[in-house]
Amino acid sequence: MKQQKQPIAVALEYDGYNAPTVSATGMGKIAEEIIRIAEENGVPLQQDSELVSVLADLELGDEIPENLYRVIAEVIAFAYIVSGRFPVDWQPEQ
């Protein structure tokens, strides 16, 4: 019988100035709770199993490593767009 994979979730906190930090991480029921809380609070979710496996190795409060800055910037941009939020000085391309 094939064993079902447990969900894994990692939450990041970003203040807009410093590198994002890991604010929550968990597997199974804890991951489900992280996802539930995010959904209840309108936090955009993105599924990326490879990225979450790298982030899950970090400790709570750790800044994301510099080699992940670009991919995390894309995740943050995605979150802003789906939330209808844009940086204060953002101007659409003409």
Structure report:
- This protein is an alpha+beta fold and 94 residues long.
- It has one domain (8-83): secretion proteins EscU (name from scop, 3-Layer(aba) Sandwich), CATH 3.40.1690.
- Helices cover 36% and strands 14% of the residues.
- It has a two-stranded antiparallel sheet with strand order 1-2.
- The longest helix is centred in the last third of the chain and has 15 residues, at 69-83.
The number of E-state strands comes to 2
Low-confidence stretches: none
Q: What series of H and E elements makes up the topology?
A: EEHHH
Class from helix and strand fractions? alpha+beta
Question: Would you summarize the structure shown here?
Answer:
This protein is an alpha+beta fold and 94 residues long. It is built from three helices and two strands, in the order E-E-H-H-H.
What's the layout of helices and strands?
Blueprint (H helix, E strand, L loop, with lengths): L7 E6 L7 E7 L1 H12 L8 H7 L13 H15 L11
Antiparallel strand pairs: 1-2
Please supply descriptive tags for the structure shown above:
14% strand, 94 residues, two-stranded antiparallel sheet
